[in-house]
């Protein structure tokens, strides 16, 4: 279930550049790969820094969602998650955080001012922004 959910999140975070995550059990040890729309697989080592960050976030979010379903909700504190993301994928990441915020508190910290407008466009009036000086 975690891999299936992480696949959905990863596909969203990459804006469809990857369709899902697959495990190559032929390798020893088994290897996690991303599947492209054309059917080609890409290993973690072949992914860009930003895509690896998106993979890690997809796994974290899916694990947290599973935890929330089975136990108490824990706040999710995100500190500059999108450093290696382009603007489109940053928006996808904020959309994933919005989805998570439906079940648990999300605290997003950043020093990138351009992301504030993206956060506002995704969350609307449901966001509380605090600027620290």
Labels describing this entry:
133 residues, alpha+beta, 3-stranded antiparallel beta sheet, two-stranded parallel sheet, 4 helices, 16% strand
What form results from the Cα inertia axes?
Answer: globular
- Mean pLDDT over the full residue set: 93
Beta percentage is 15-25%
C-alpha termini separation = 43 Å
Topology (elements, then pairings):
Elements: H1 2-13, E1 20-24, E2 31-35, E3 41-43, H2 49-70, E4 76-79, H3 87-100, E5 106-109, H4 114-123
Parallel strand pairs: 4-5
Antiparallel strand pairs: 1-2, 2-3
Helix pairs in contact: 1-2, 3-4
Kindly summarize this structure in a few lines.
Helix content is 44%, strand content 16%. It has helices at 2-13, 49-70, 87-100, 114-123; strands at 20-24, 31-35, 41-43, 76-79, 106-109.
Overall description:
This protein is an alpha+beta fold and 133 residues long. It has 4 helices and 5 strands, in the order αβββαβαβα. The chain has helices at 2-13, 49-70, 87-100, 114-123, and strands at 20-24, 31-35, 41-43, 76-79, 106-109. A 3-stranded antiparallel sheet has the order 1-2-3, covered by helices on one side. Strands 4-5 form a two-stranded parallel sheet. A hairpin with a 5-residue loop joins β2 and β3. The chain is globular and about 50 Å long. The relative contact order is 0.14. The mean pLDDT is 93.
């Amino acid at each position: 279930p975690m891999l299936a959910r992480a696949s959905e999140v990863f596909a969203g975070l990459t804006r469809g550049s990857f369709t899902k995550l697959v495990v190559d059990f032929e390798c020893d040890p088994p290897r996690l790969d991303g599947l492209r729309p054309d059917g080609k697989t890409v290993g973690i080592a072949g992914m860009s820094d930003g895509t690896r960050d998106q993979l890690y976030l997809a796994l974290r979010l899916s694990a947290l969602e599973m935890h929330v379903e089975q136990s108490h909700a824990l706040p999710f504190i995100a500190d500059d998650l999108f450093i290696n993301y382009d603007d489109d994928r940053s928006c996808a990441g904020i959309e994933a955080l919005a989805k998570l915020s439906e079940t648990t508190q999300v605290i997003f910290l950043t020093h990138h001012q351009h992301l504030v407008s993206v956060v506002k466009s995704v969350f609307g009036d449901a966001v509380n922004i605090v600027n620290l000086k």
